[in-house]
Amino acid sequence: MTIDELSQIEALAAEIAELSRTFEGSSQHFMVDGPPCLKKSEELVALIQSPAEHATSLIAKTMETAVIRTLLSLNVLQTIPTPGYISLQDLAAATETQPYLLERLLRVVTRSGFIIRENEAYCHTHTSLAYAGPLGGLFTPCYDEGIRALIRLPEYLSVKSKEEAKSAMHSPFTWNEGQEGKTTFEILSKMPARTKGIHTLSMNVQHLRPYAGFFDFNELVSKDPERPVFVDVGGGNGHVIKEILQAFPRIRPEQCVLEDRAETIELARTTGLLPAGVQLLEHDYLTRQPISNAKAYHLRAVAYNLGDAELVQLLKQIVPVMGPDSKVLIAENILFSDNGTTFSTVSDMIMLCIGGKERTERNFREVLDEAGLTIDSIHRASGLEFGIVEASLKMP
Ligand SMILES: C[S@@+](CC[C@H](N)C(=O)[O-])C[C@H]1O[C@@H](n2cnc3c(N)ncnc32)[C@H](O)[C@@H]1O
Fold it and tell me: What CATH class has 209-393?
């Protein structure tokens, strides 16, 4: 190690010591980048680690990820008592797992300190205990819908033609599921437990996708009481319209439309989230938009599910029914031009697997332009990558 590298290590260690004096605890939110002293500690590890140690730790971590997912599916984490210890034999019996297999899996997580083994018995750490609870419900869909297919990406790319790899119906996800030719949503609609997992995950990253506070939806209020004001395309179970109407009560529910696939519309009918008066419409967003001349067509967390060609196709279904002052509002992460956050990077890799994409401002400009739209403004939520891309018809 050179003198330069040693002094860099010393400087970073001093910075961490300084930051730890004002450290007030780690974030309890999922997918939020940690506090500065954690970031600096990671930089320190990167400086100290040799390339061989880096590769070793990466391989061990990847294996630990699969092991933790397995321990959740075997109900092992959920069976370890709190507080207290459980022997291998009792844990194996309670989870109907072979003791020899269980011991090998648990060795991976006791080595890392995720679980503690003492006197031939196992007990939780505060981290493994969190996985046994709601955190496991967030980790599992990231693993099932992202990591599982991503791990096979080199193999996928070696067997797919370039054209096939561009289509969402031949995405790493559909290929890995053995269901090419269908859309991700068609496949997931037959898997209620996994759909529920994705829904739980999406509700738990809402702090990174605020509903209000950065765009004035009051601008949409129309003097014409008959005019549709807010069409929520792929609007989900109704939580978005509910929050927006709550924050902007001048918008009348009767002038709002929730559009989605049949099963989601059914969900929206039963959850009771939607204010009375909102119209519900079964609609495939890749077909002609049925509501003409709305003040705004709103797409929240929809564009990132789609590749460029599909997003252009979706927008081209809206353009012909827009009035001269209609807006398309795309509420999404708009990637920072420098390094991405953990959230958008993880999200982009999951989207890569299902044929979607997180986008930069330039990426949005390109797809909107191809669809016949132009960006009027970008409204970012303070300190977040999330925001609204406000677009209107391109003037001839
Ligand atoms: C990630 S969710 C976003 C839901 C909601 N906009 C939100 O912000 O929470 C994507 C939505 O697109 C809907 N969707 C998927 N394919 C669709 C299609 N072909 N036509 C209409 N909606 C579709 C899904 O049912 C789902 O509700």
Answer: alpha beta
